[in-house]
Amino acid sequence: MVDAPRLGMLIFLGSETMLFAGFIAAFLVFRLGAPVWPPPFQPRLPVELTGANTGVLLLSGYTMWRALRAARDEKHAGLTRSLAQTALLGATFLGVQGYEWGRLLAFGLTASSGVYGGTFYTLIGAHAVHVVAALAWLALLLIGTRRGGDAAPAHVGVSLLGMYWYFVVALWPLLYTLVYLA
Amino acid sequence: MTTATAQHGEHGFWTTHVFSTDHKTIGKQYLTLGLFWAVVGGLLTYVMRWQLAWPETVVPGWGEIGPETYNALVTMHGTIMVFFVAMPILLGAFGNFLIPLMVGARDMAFPRLNMLSLWVFALASLLLFISFFVPGGAAAAGWTGYPPLSAKAEYTGVNWGMDLWILAHALEFAAFLMGGVNYLTTAIAFRVPGMTFSRLPLVIWQQLTATTLFLLSVGPLIAGAVMLLLDRQIGTHFFTPGGGGDPLLWQHLFWFFGHPEVYVILLPAVGLVLDVLPVFSRKPIFGYRWIIASTIVAGGLSFIVWAHHMFVSGIDPRLAMPFSITTILISVPFAYLMFAMIATLWRGSIRFDTPMLFALGFIAMFIVGGLTGIFNGSAPADIYISDTYFVVAHFHYTLFSSVFFGGLAGFYFWFPKMFGRLMNETLGKLHFWLTIVFFNATFFPMHNIGLAGMMRRIANPLQYDFLVPHQWINVVATIGTMLLLASQIPFVMNVVWSLVAVRPAPKNPWQANTLEWTAPSPPPHLNWGEALPVVYRGPYEYSVPEAPEDWLPQDRVLAARAR
Ligand SMILES: [Cu+2]
């Protein structure tokens, strides 16, 4: 029999993919239609710092993978540790992003300053909202694991969160390439 | 299924009728909300049509109508009928009620998510309803919400109403996303033993295709809605040309969703009709596998036709030709579906009960709408008729026929299963004949006045000299509308009478094959008693020579070579 919760999550992630396809398409319309990008007098995006931050997020994908293995092997301590590491890395990623946004805003790049700023904050912001959601879910799960409840439902929860986390992590290199590098 | 029973613990009044996780109750709740909105949307048509026929008079029971009010009426009519009537009834009600019963599941895969879906939809309904009464009134930028009209409050004079409109849509999409995850998961993971995909009733196939289309097309529109809200609230310039934005981008995002959305409504209706036809023809459906293939092909093509809504929007003319070609191609699978429906009737022993009448009405009316669709789809013809009443006539022949004739075919057919009561056949037949006559009286004249040049969404046709000689056509359509609204009285009487006067429905009143007819009417919580049915055959085995009766339910084993 097909595993219903994972199947449901997969279907949901299909819709999420199309949501980002919409945001990316809007970005590309403006990006490819512009004669110069970034437009004149607009700040350049912090490529190096975000590159390092990309590494942080990818690392959180690895710790999430370890958490999933621990959950499968029913290693309670390992699960809690890996989830906590994942949360820490995710929070670091968000923190660095927040710092960057603060600097960009200080340089005068706002969402209403033009389509360059508008697409940047919307597309990257949409991803950030997903990271926040994933972190909140992770925090709830971590609290549940700490209390040491029933092992079986926690396992389903961890594996669903894992799928969502992978999605959020996997999306990022694409966004980084499109928005920061290309 | 002890785990399932344990999950569905107490059965108090609130958990049974209001905060229920039972798919049947949720289906009925969707039905109720959809019917409520149908009444609201129907009353709006009365106001609009009165205004169009006698523009310089006061609308009785409403008051005077200026162009601003008319804009709000036409916007809300479209929004309500598509998103708050068609979807909750065809997907929300029938999908919820039928999918678990027809695949042999005791409930949806995620019952609590299902309940959440309903309540999010209820919240969306509430916001949309409130939007009529906020300062500035309801949204007035058209059901398609085109910017720049929708992007700045100054352009329509509507501020709150437009934001509520966007929020109501966002919530509605969230509701149907949750529903969609449930529909697909349930049908894939919870089929009863023997229920292979090639034994799945066609209505389920259509629901699943529609759901898939919705799930894959709604994302870009949600992205667009977020950007529109940001344009309005924090001053981004995605869609306003002044700041470097592009209004056409919204049209692309909207119609990338909008055309599949048409099939999200149409396919479930086609499914209802496909399941009604064999029962009342006492014949297997014609070309079961080809119907599924056509549906999937149509679904796939629906993602690459969207720019046919934009032939006059100033898109690159080189785009018009490929989109014309895909649009004309997409009529091929639908032509096959219509052909299969008619071939199913061929030499059947037809029973003209009310569900069958509405199913036949769907076929007849949809063919008219399909034919006019070919004119709209070809760019040279469309440039002349775009944004005229010809298009209004076209999409009412396709969508009204789906929601009304298709939906009512399903409603009359499954009412005994949903409520455990039989409906009155005489009132049902009266309802059908009045509806089909006045439907045509309302919408057929719109072809003519559209070809005469009358534009959509104008509040007063008499302002245009060239339309004055054709005003009588508007009067005919308006009288048709009022009689069409009055034609629903027998329906309301019938529903109320059937629910009050207890004429209990037997398990299988129509002598049909599919699994829901093996459950009691109405099915209890968890649908079947101790044992679930087991499936041995396809859904449409009627008039099989080996069977003792002219129907052969999916769960029946034939005694080996009996007699
Ligand atoms: Cu279309």
Bound molecules: copper (II) ion
- N- to C-terminal separation of chain A? 44 Å
Number of strands of chain B: 0
Cα shape of chain A = elongated
Strand content of chain A: under 5%
Question: Using only CA atoms, what is the Rg of chain B?
Answer: 24 Å
> Order of helices and strands of chain B, N to C?
HHHHHHHHHHHHHHHHH
The number of domains of chain A: 1
Distance between the first and last residues' Cα of chain B: 38 Å
Reported for the largest beta sheet of chain A, the result is: none
Helix content of chain A: over 70%
- Enter the CATH topology name of chain A: Four Helix Bundle (Hemerythrin (Met), subunit A)
Percent in strands of chain B: under 5%
Low-confidence stretches of chain B: 1-8
- Helicity range of chain B: 55-70%
Cα radius of gyration of chain A in angstroms = 18 Å
Largest sheet of chain B: none
The total count of helices of chain B amounts to 17
Quaternary structure classification: heterodimer
| SSE pattern of chain A | HHHHH
Explain what the structure shows.
The complex is a heterodimer of chains A (182) and B (563). Chain A is mainly α and 182 residues long. The longest helix of chain A is centred in the C-terminal third of the chain and has 33 residues, at 115-147. Chain A has five helices and no strands. Chain A has helices at 4-33, 47-72, 76-106, 115-147, 151-181. In chain A, helix 1 (4-33) runs antiparallel to helix 4, helix 1 (4-33) runs parallel beside helix 5 (151-181) and helix 3 (76-106) runs antiparallel to helix 4 (115-147). Helix content of chain A is 83%, strand content 0%. Chain A starts with a helix and ends with a helix. Chain A has one domain (4-181): Four Helix Bundle (Hemerythrin (Met), subunit A) (Up-down Bundle). Chain B has 563 residues and is an all-alpha fold. Chain B has one domain: Cytochrome c oxidase-like, subunit I domain (Cytochrome C Oxidase, Chain A, Up-down Bundle), CATH 1.20.210.10. In chain B, 64% of the residues lie in helices and 0% in strands. In chain B, helix 14 packs antiparallel against helix 15 (425-451). The longest helix of chain B is centred in the first third of the chain and has 37 residues, at 67-103. Chain B is globular. The chains are: A mainly alpha (182), B mainly alpha (563). Chains A and B meet through helix 1 and helix 4 of A and helix 7, helix 8 and helix 9 of B. The structure holds copper (II) ion.
